[in-house]
Amino acid sequence: MNNRISLSRYLVEQQRSKGHIPAELRLLLEVVARACKSISHAVNKGALGGVLGSADRENVQGEVQKKLDIIANEVLIEANEWGGHLAAMASEEMDSIYLVPNRYPQGEYLLLFDPLDGSSNIDVNVSIGTIFSVLRKPEASASVTEQDFLQSGRHQVAAGYCIYGPQTTLVLTVGDGVAMFTLDREQGSFVLTQENITIPADTKEFAINMSNMRHWAEPVRRYIDECLQGKEGPRGKDFNMRWIASMVADVHRILTRGGVFMYPWDKREPHKAGKLRLMYEASPMGWIVEQAGGAAINGQERILDITPQHLHQRVSVMLGSKNEVERLRQFHASI
Ligand code: AHG
Ligand code: MN
Ligand code: MN
Question: Which CATH class is domain 205-333?
Fold first, then answer.
């Protein structure tokens, strides 16, 4: 298998022939991929590595942290702080931004991540993942502040996720479509397994936590209600449902065979815009989905157009097959 293209080669070729990625960004992405490889090993060890269970601590959002949330966070920080490509990092698991220590050179990029997405699935051996987003540090900024991170998703220079499932797969965009790399454990490298991923514009599959139905807003209820009516309803076709409760895994399925994913605003806590976080969940996933020909909105607005007010801001999310997301947008516009 001499024609296998490793992640390193893919990135070098992107840099050389297409000018998409400067050398520093390439290094950054290789380091993130290496960190994901370590996280993948820890995930695979499971109970044998003592990584399961709760850490008996809460993060800034009041969620109980699992041991693996903390381990994954530390792996990403330790891997990325010394390389000279970053100025600062931000994570779901850290209250405030993490500045690259003075003893290391400062780079031009800002890295955001959800170190371990789908925490409720860790202990039950169901797919989980890591989500990341890369921004450029604003030029005028000497020492980085949280304000420097508050850029809309349109400003991302790279975004990706790694899914720890039956296979470990890294999915990446640098603004030139979406590529998928599978971890070859014997060789220890990510190998390109799919390029130019395209999400079909139509679908017969939706993903939403149905147990929240009674709390949803009218447009979301209407959309799901029509799907549930199947062949006899206005859609004229039967729909299937999937809900893995790991955004990475649900989005990965959508990239593979289409579908629509929703975690909408609901009435339980009306002041809360949604459950998912804008900067390190919705924006990177939204960009990946758009780069694959899909769409991502909060109901009314494109996710990538939302300028964050806070690092840990939450947002309502609807993404996936273009025509379905458009239908959801129209339902929201007509109330
Ligand atoms: P995290 O584990 O990083 O906190 O994210 C979990 C998120 C997301 O991955 C998933 O889609 C959703 O929470 C599941 O929520 P429910 O348990 O409410 O279904
Ligand atoms: Mn998450
Ligand atoms: Mn998480």
Answer: alpha beta
